[in-house]
Write a structure and sequence with these properties.
Blueprint: E1 3-7, E2 10-12, E3 18-25, E4 33-39, E5 46-52, E6 57-59, E7 67-72, E8 77-82, E9 91-99, E10 102-105, E11 109-113
Parallel strand pairs: 2-11
Antiparallel strand pairs: 1-3, 3-8, 4-5, 4-9, 5-6, 7-8, 9-10, 9-11
Amino acid sequence: QVHLVESGGGLVQPGGSLRLACSASGTSIGAKTMAWYRQAPGKQRELVASVTNYDTTLYADLVKGRFTVSRLYLKNTLYLQMHNLEPEDTGAYYCNAQFSIGDYWGRGTQVTVSS
């Protein structure tokens, strides 16, 4: 059973930075794609950023230039470095990993951007 655990969320002022991490356990194979999604209250979950096993990255337009996604492939560890955070970035951030054996989600970590 693959298990994903996110960490690094918290309360930050507008303009601040946070670094999220996601660690996958329960498998020795590398994920094909790992991604960060977020869900704000009353809104649908949306893709923030993803990275494939070929290091191809994809970003939502709203975070381009502010967020950077990276991964340690052999350790199935995913990071999201967030700079210049805005109140609109507030939400629960979820890690997703796509393996050949299935698609898995973490339970999320809360990011709150507020003064």
